[in-house]
Structures are given as C-alpha cells and as structure tokens.
Design a protein that fits this description.
It is built from 25 helices and 26 strands. It is an alpha+beta fold. It has 6 domains: 163 residues, 2-Layer Sandwich (Beta-Lactamase), CATH 3.30.450; 101 residues, Beta-Lactamase (2-Layer Sandwich), CATH 3.30.450.20; 116 residues, PAS domain (Beta-Lactamase, 2-Layer Sandwich), CATH 3.30.450.20; 107 residues, PAS domain (Beta-Lactamase); 87 residues, Helix Hairpins; 137 residues, Heat Shock Protein 90, CATH 3.30.565. The chain has a 6-stranded antiparallel sheet with strand order 3-2-1-6-5-4, with helices on both faces. Strands 8-7-11-10-9 form a 5-stranded antiparallel sheet, with helices on both faces. Strands 13-12-16-15-14 form a 5-stranded antiparallel sheet, with helices on both faces. A hairpin with a 5-residue loop joins β7 and β8. It is rod-shaped and about 230 Å long.
Length: 788
C-alpha cells in the first residue's frame, strides 16, 4: 500500500474515533436517520480538517441496507438524496470498478476491519470522477440506536490529483522522447566539475564518440569549451545575470572532421544539484547549404543577366524582389529614374498604372491577377512602350513563382521586345494582301502555280496548286495533296520516266527544274505541258519546288510548223544556192567558152586586117589598133567575170589553191598584208562543200575590206579529225555590236552555208585589241552529207 493510502487511512481512523466519542457523549440527540445533526456536532478542528481536505462523510448500516451521506458525499457521488442503498451506490460506480467495490464492501461488512480503495464514479452530469473511499466497521455498542454493525468512512475526490499525475507522467514521457529523438545534441553536466551525466544520441553523433566515452568525461576534455577561462566566464555570467549563453565555434572530431557547432548553455537544478544543460546544433551542413545557396543566388543572377529579355520577380503584393541587367537597360531606355533601374523594393502594380497606357495597364494587371488566382498558368499582354527616340512594342509574359500554403507565392514577369515582330507582322499582312491579289491574278493566267514536295522517304505530293490543275493535268488539286501518283498517271508513258529523272537530278543538284512533256488528258487528249520550278531543301531532308506549269500544245504546234517552214526555207535556200552556183558555173563556162572564143576569133581577124593594110592607110591602121586593144580589154573583162562567177582553179586544183588565189587577189587589190596557210595536199572535198567554204572565205574577206579597217589578215585552212576548219583573223577594230542571231545578211549567209554543211560558225570580237576571229568548223558528218 502506498504512503498516500496509509495517510488517508490514518485520517479516516481519526475521524471515526472522534465521531465515536461524539456518539457516546450525545447519543440521545443523534441517529442515522438524522445525518445533518450528526455532522454538525463534530469538533471544530475535525470540521476544518474535513473542509480543507474536501472529504465527504458517510455511514452504512448493513442491517437496513442504508447508506447515509453528507452534502459533500452526495455531491461526489452525484446522489440526489442523503440516504441510498448499496445498490444505489454501485449504480453510480463505473462498470469496470463495480465488482471490485462490491467484493471489498461485502468483505468489510462480514469480517469488519478497515476498507480503503479508489474507484471511478459516474455523475448525472456524465463526468467521471476518481474517488478515494476509506471505511472502518464499528461495534454496535458504540452507536446507540443502531440495530447491528455500522460502517463509517470518508469520500475524497482524487480526479485533479490523478490528472496531475497523468500529466506529469505524460510530460516526463514526452521529455524523454524529445530528449532521445531531438535532432539537436542535448547533454547534462554537473556545474561543479563539468562532468557529463547524460546525453542524447544526437549529442553523441555530433561528438563522433560512443556513449561510454562521453559519460563521466568533463566538457572541457571533450573540447566543448574553447578554454577553461571561457567556461569560467560563462558560468559567472549565468550565475550573476541569469542569462543563458549561446555561441558558435568549430570543433575537430576524433575522425578529423571539422564541424560548425551552434550551442547554448543554461543552468538547471536536478535533485537539488545545479547542472548545466547543453544544447548543441550541428550547423555544418547549414553553412555548406548557405554557401551553396549564395552560390546558387549568384548563378541565378548571372543566368538572369545573360537573358536577352527583361525579367522582374514579384511577390504576391507586386513588390519587385529581383531584376536582371536587361531590366535596368529596359528602364534606362524608357527614361526611368535610377531607382526603377534597380527595381527591387518598388511595387510593380503601381509602376504599371503609372507607366502604361490606361488600357495596357488594365490588361497587364488583369493578367497578373489571373495568374495569382490560379486561373491561368501563363498570361501574355502586348503593349506599346515608346522610348524617347523611337516607337516600340513589348510582350509581357507572366508566370507563377512557386506555390505555398496561401497559393501562388509570387510572379515572374518577362518583357520581350517584339518591335521587329510587329513590323514583320505588318509586312506579312501586306504580303498576304499582295498574295491575295497575286492569287487573283494567277487565277486569270493560263497556267498553274504549284508547290511540289518530295518527302524524306522519296514519295511525292503537291501541297499547293491552283484550280487550273484539272485543265492541264486532268486531276483535281485535292487529289494530289497527299500523293502525286494520280498526276503521274496522266503523263505519257514515254515521258514519265524522263520527267521523274529530271526531278531527281534537280533534287540532287538543287538546280532549277525545266521539262517539256506530254499529258494524256482524259477530256482533251494528247497535250504538251511545260514545267519550271526552283527547289529548296527542307529541314527534315525533303525538297520543295515552287514553280509554274502551263499548256504549250499550241506553241508546240506552231513551232513544228515554223520548223517545217524553216526546213522548207533552208531546203529552198540550198536549192537556190545550188542553182545559183550551177548557173554561175554555166554562165562562166558559156562566157569563157563562147564569148571568149568569139573574142579571140575577132582578135585574130583584126590582126589579119591590120596586117593587110597599106602603109599609107595610117588612119585605118590606128582604128584597127584601137579595135584590137578594145578586144583585149573585153577579153580580159570576160575572163574576170568568168573567174568571179566560178574560179576555174577551184575545180582544177581544189579548195586550197582557190583560197590562196582568193587571198592573193585580196592583197593585190587592197594592199593589206595577208598570210595564208593551206594543206600541201589537195583536199578531196565535194564540189558543193568546197564551194560553200570558198564563198564563206570570200564573204569574210569582203567584210574585212568593208568594216574592219585592218592592216593584217591571217587565213588558215586545215583538215582535222573532226572535219575541215577555216579560220579568218584580222587586227581591225572588231564588230562594235555583234548581231546575236546573225541578222546581218553577210553573217546570215555565212551561218546558213555552215548549217547546210552541218557545221557551226564561231565569231569572237575584241574591239581595238585583237580584232575579229571567225572560225568555221565543218564536221566529218557534214562532209559525208555533202558527198552524198
């Protein structure tokens, strides 16, 4: 039995003793049926003791099963009457304690003696009270008027005491749990000698030592103090001023690690002995974290300063927390004061109202409030912000900065200069309008503007084409948006592979594509189509062509007719030249044979007539001599005309001799220095080919005489593996404006003669430097053609 129960039992015994004396002394006026009178006659000392101890008195008579209660006992039991039965008492006891109380009560009634126990009572108010009951059985003789044994005792409310005890136990348990689980090192050392008497695991972790090496060791030996003087000074301060000590220092553990410790020391009294309560906090990682945070802050600022946009970080109220260098430049460009350039501490909401236009400020504030309210993740507002020198546009982008207990913690605002984009949009709008106009114009053009794309996998499609595609290729534009196969199916089978090959070459070389091909139109039959486009490479490896296709059937037909007419004209020209050469040859032969012979005969007759004259016929002899001279001149002219019409040397000695005679005649007539190089052996050429080359050389020398103003002419004739090469070079002034298509009749004749022979003419002129060089190349095929 505890000391409390023993003391309570002694108090109850004393009270019962005193009450028994009173019963014996004044039994005539007392009785169990009159409890109020019973208790009012207690000695004054006993009443004061009961009031101070808050005891309730009761008396139980087993014979009548009557339990008499005083006012305090009724209050503690929650009874409405001062007289109840044992069952009434048990009805007010907690169900878990009823059986224990009943057995103890019955045992006390049977055997007598003392009764002491604690139980829980349930009052009518629903509260559960812890009550302490003490009782003692009395002899019937000691209570006059009682029918048998009597049990008297006391009731005391122990609820508050038990609550305090439970609180103390819980407090001790919590302190023990906190002491053991605290992340801070806690140690207790005696004030007298500094020996540690208890430590928690965190304290051991900080020191890096096991528990047995810490307990019983002084704090100085563990280097918790920098020096004995520091300990003495701190203890004096604690004892005099009553203030706790706190400070930070470094400590080297046994394993060599240096730790930063933040400690505090205070005086506590345990079991009447003063102790020092140590609280150590290892802030090594905190210092490292602080250094990392500082480094992170510097890195964050450096990253922000490197951004090409103005950035400002705000709190929920709009105060600027941080800005980057671009923000300062942004504020400076807009004529803002120096404080706004720094930005930090200012309210950005007020800046918007003051700096923006009314509409832009309202939009900006609504965007920021929407982000703060969590309605949108990111908000954007475009606003004009003109500097003192030019008009500009900016894009304000607002995003959330973290999220805490109260929602979004702040905002990040980014200002992007979009002046170039706005200008580009204006230009784009103009281009779209122009494109719309061009589209209308394109719709009226007899052709189709299109875009052809080759995907990276090699498949073709036509993502864009005008409506006229159906009139040209016979397919709708929508049918070839994803696959160009329907359009390829419309190409003539003989041209399909050629078209694909030209497209592949254009994709490989990135060269412009041009092709003419035939289309089997389902409605119009065979049509000729011409396509042109420019390729450009795409990022995914594909190729995109933009071009134009149109129907050239009419042009093809016209070209065929023109070619036919040209062929006919060339054939007619060849025939005319051939007839002319034949006619010249015939006329030359006729003049040479007929007229030359007649003149020769006439000259012989004149000579005979002259020889038959008499010496005295001088006048007649003079006339005959004049006639002879005239006949000689006429004969000479006939030979010249005959030679010009068809040089006989060309037929007798060949082209080489004819070229030499032509150059010698040119030099003799004009006095220009000339050189000529011809093959030593006679060139066996067809008469027609030799005639063409002779006439070409004759025309070139004539042009030199008329236009070149040259002082030297070089003529060469050579036979190579490719054919016959005729070259005429002069050092004259050149042709000032060389006709591109040979519209000069002389040059046109030269080109036509060369074409008739299957050859080509090359004319190079460099005025005032090297004159003009004309090269006529007649291939072997042309020689064979003329030979046939």
């Amino acid at each position: 039995m505890s000391a409390e129960w023993i003391a309570l039992f002694l108090v109850a015994t004393l009270l019962l003793f005193l009450s028994g004396r009173l019963f014996r002394r004044r039994s005539s006026g007392w009785g169990l049926r009159r409890p109020d009178c019973l208790w009012q006659s207690l000695p004054r000392e006993a009443s004061l003791f009961m009031n101070n101890a808050r005891l309730g008195l009761w008396c139980y008579e087993p014979a009548g099963d009557a339990l008499t209660l005083d006012a305090r006992a009724r209050q503690l039991l929650g009874a409405a009457e001062d007289l109840i039965s044992k069952a009434g008492l048990l009805a007010r006891v907690h169900p878990e304690d009823q059986e224990t109380l009943r057995l103890a009560w019955e045992n006390c009634c049977r055997q007598g003696g003392a009764l002491a126990m604690e139980f829980r009572a349930l009052g009518e108010d629903g509260l559960c009270r812890h009550l302490s009951l003490s009782a003692h059985a009395l002899n019937p003789l000691s209570c006059k008027g009682c029918q048998g044994p009597v049990i008297r005792g006391t009731l005391q409310d122990m609820s508050e005491q038990r609550r305090l005890e439970n609180s103390l136990r819980e407090s001790e348990s919590r302190f023990s749990a906190v002491f053991q689980a605290s992340p801070a090192g806690i140690g207790i050392s005696r004030l007298e000698d500094g020996v540690l008497v208890d430590v928690n695991p965190a304290f051991l972790e900080i020191l890096g030592l096991p528990r047995e090496e810490v307990l019983g060791v002084s704090s100085s030996a563990l280097h918790l103090w920098a020096s004995p003087e520091e300990r003495r000074s701190v203890i004096e301060t604690l004892l005099e001023a009553g203030r706790s000590y706190s400070g930070e220092h470094r400590m080297r553990r046994r394993d060599g690690q240096w730790r930063h410790l933040l400690g505090s020391v205070d005086i506590v009294c345990l079991d009447g002995v003063q102790h020092l309560l140590w609280v150590l906090l290892d802030v090594t990682e905190l210092r490292h974290s602080a250094a990392l945070i500082n480094r992170s802050e510097n890195l964050t600022q450096a990253v922000m300063d490197s951004l090409p946009v103005a950035v400002a970080v705000l709190d929920r109220l709009g105060h600027i927390l941080r800005v980057n260098r671009k923000w300062s430049e942004f504020a400076l460009d807009n004529g803002a004061p120096g404080r706004l350039q720094q930005g930090e501490g200012l309210n950005y909401f007020e800046i918007c109202l003051r700096s923006f236009s009314e509409e832009s400020a309202r939009e900006a504030l609504e965007a920021m409030q929407a982000v703060l309210a969590g309605k949108v993740a990111v908000a954007s507002v475009e606003y004009p912000c003109n500097s003192p020198v030019r008009e500009r546009w900016f894009l304000l982008q607002v995003s959330a900065l973290g999220e805490g207990m109260e929602g979004i913690e702040g905002l990040v605002t980014i200002h992007v200069d979009i002046t170039a984009r706005r200008l580009a949009e204006v230009v784009l709008q103009q281009r779209l309008e122009l494109q719309s106009q061009l589209a209308k114009v394109a719709d009226s053009v007899p052709g189709v503007i299109y875009s052809l794309r080759r995907r990276p996998d090699g498949r073709y499609c036509m993502p864009y084409a005008l409506r006229g595609l159906k009139d040209i290729l016979g397919v709708e534009p929508e049918a070839v948006v994803e696959d160009f196969a329907p359009a390829l199916g419309m190409l003539h089978p003989e041209d399909r592979n050629r078209v694909i090959d030209t497209v592949e070459v254009s994709a490989r070389d990135m060269s412009p594509w041009f092709c003419e091909f035939r289309v089997l139109h389902p409605e119009h039959g065979l049509r000729w189509v011409e396509g042109r486009s420019i390729p450009c490479a795409e990022a995914d490896g594909g190729v995109l062509w933009h071009g134009f296709i149109h129907d050239i059937t009419g042009r093809k037909q016209a070209n065929e007719e023109i070619m036919q007419s040209r062929d006919q004209l060339r054939a007619l020209t060849e025939r005319l030249q051939s007839v002319r050469e034949e006619e010249r040859t015939r006329i030359s032969r006729e003049i040479h044979d007929q007229l030359g012979q007649n003149l020769t005969i006439l000259k012989l007759d004149v000579l005979c007539l002259r020889n038959g004259l008499q010496p005295d016929q001088e006048e007649l002899a003079a006339k005959v001599a004049a006639m002879g001279s005239l006949i000689d001149e006429t004969l000479k002219t006939v030979r010249t005309i005959s030679w010009d019409l068809r040089p006989g040397i060309l037929d007798t000695l060949g082209l080489g001799a004819g070229i030499e005679w032509l150059v010698d005649d040119f030099r003799r007539r004009l006095g220009i220095r000339c050189t000529v190089r011809v093959p030593e052996e006679r060139l066996e050429l067809h008469d027609c080919l030799a005639t063409h080359l002779f006439r070409i050389c004759q025309e070139l020398l004539t042009n030199v005489a008329r236009h070149a103003r040259a002082s030297r002419v070089d003529v060469s004739l050579a036979c190579t593996a490719e054919g016959v090469l005729l070259e005429v070079l002069d050092n004259g002034q050149g042709v000032a404006a060389l006709p591109a298509n040979g519209h000069s009749l002389g040059l046109l004749g030269i080109r036509e003669r060369a074409v008739q022979c299957g050859g080509m003419v090359e004319i190079v002129t460099v005025p005032e430097i090297s004159g003009t060089r004309v090269r006529v190349q007649i291939p072997v095929t042309g020689m064979e053609k003329e030979a046939r």
